[in-house]
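Lab notebook: predicted structure, single chain.

Context: the supervisor wants predicted structures on file for every construct in the current expression panel, including those that have not yet been purified. This is the next one on the list. No modifications to the sequence; it matches the entry in the shared construct table.
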Amino acid sequence: MAKRSVLGLFLDVDVVADTLDALKAEGYTTEEYDVLTGTPYPEGTFGEAESVHKLFRWPLLGAACGFIVAIMLTTGTQLAYPLVTGGKPILSIPPITIITYEGTMLGAILFTIIGIIWESRLPRIFMGAYDTRITEGYIGVTVTTEEGRIARAEEVLRGSGAEDITRGWEND
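Prediction complete. Output recorded below exactly as produced.
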């Protein structure tokens, strides 16, 4: 099912806060609308809900994957080429710990980068309507909801004083 997305562009911070209040009064949930801005306003400036991120999970997952791959790589290599040197054991702990540490860190770093890209919604396919004027100082309020409710969202945005309205599509 396709969802419809509409973006209202504003210049005043207070008007955006009033717009969010109007959207809440019309029955739109905090998952249906979002504030887009190029200016780093503090969390809650517009009265929006605090954003929840799950970035902390990505390094943990990456560290676990890196640890497993490093253990498999070191033990697999030592077992595939069983070269006994000076009567020492084939599976030697000191080299395994060094490579395992490096593999764990590498996995954590790579997965953190992937997590940042994912949590930042950088692939634009996850966003609905967008306008480049947001980077020029405008504040955008985007509403993504079912097609039947999008006309009312446009009315609320216009009634709140939106400078311009942009439409977009988001696939489910």
